[in-house]
Amino acid sequence: MHIGLIGLGRMGNNMRARLEKNGIEVTGYDTNPDVSDVATLADLVAALPTPRTVWVMVPAGQITDSVITELEPLLESGDLVIDGGNSKFTEDFKHAELLAPKGVDFMDCGVSGGIWGLENGYGLMVGGSKEQVERVMPVFDALRPEGPREEGFVHVGEVGAGHYAKMVHNGIEYALMQAYAEGYELLDTRKDIIKDVTGTFKAWQRGTVVRSWLLDLLVRALEQDPEFEHIEGYVQDSGEGRWTVEEGLNNAVPLPTISASIFARFVSRQEDSPAMKAVAALRNQFGGHAVKAVD
């Protein structure tokens, strides 16, 4: 199978490498000519066999919107556009509507795995038609982790469902990171009792009910910088946590834990905090997100 991939940044380039490793031919386009296979989007479309599959992996919002708008006149009936970025699910409806008059299908795919996806595979949450999902299943199988398909891939529903599922996933992620971080701060505060904070978290990695990949990454971060001396307790939010809380409000679903984790990030921008240092370190570990260094 041969697909086009737009956006060869931190995740896109790793995805290209994993796809090629698993037998998928990829023609990539990026505004950075040093990593791009073709010079323009038109060249990308011309290089693909029909019906074309074009995966868009660029920052959500205006950039994704402009790429899909620019693609629309270049594509033909039967082609497929997949948005694998972190777009808000409501944007998917707009993009599907834009492409539909030309007979171009649209699919949204929530992607989780961060900078570790090349090695471990990516968790995939897909929204779109059953027919198109089946057509490009070799691509999803190449990207997902090894093991049972249902443990790393789900066809959630129609257009918008994939990004909705990823939005909730990220809301949960916010809350989990905050819980680990608050536990870290309490342990670190009581050094009169707790003589080995890093060792405590490390001992939780096997056999305990709080074991997880996030815990593994927190241990890794602590081993690199046990007191988080080189990280300021300043944490950004990518938008999906906010969207999750908005959906809770719109649907009268109580989300007190996720909501509190987002407000805690706002606190981090006002004063330095050991817990926020832990959250910043975790985001850097799993996603390569930038941390704010201590002056």
From TrEMBL:
SUPFAM superfamilies per UniProt: 6-phosphogluconate dehydrogenase C-terminal domain-like, NAD(P)-binding Rossmann-fold domains
Top-rank lineage group of the source organism: Bacteria
6-phosphogluconate dehydrogenase C-terminal domain mapped to chain residues: 162-290
Keywords, ordered alphabetically: Gluconate utilization, Oxidoreductase
Pfam families, per database record: 6PGD, NAD_binding_2
Cited InterPro entries: 6-PGluconate_DH-like_C_sf, 6DGDH_YqeC, 6PGD_dom2, 6PGDH_C, 6PGDH_NADP-bd, NAD(P)-bd_dom_sf, Pgluconate_DH
Similarity annotation: Belongs to the 6-phosphogluconate dehydrogenase family.
PANTHER family in alphabetical order: 6-PHOSPHOGLUCONATE DEHYDROGENASE (PTHR11811)
Name of the protein described by the UniProt record: Decarboxylating 6-phosphogluconate dehydrogenase
Organism expressing this protein natively: Leifsonia williamsii
Lineage: Bacteria, Bacillati, Actinomycetota, Actinomycetes, Micrococcales
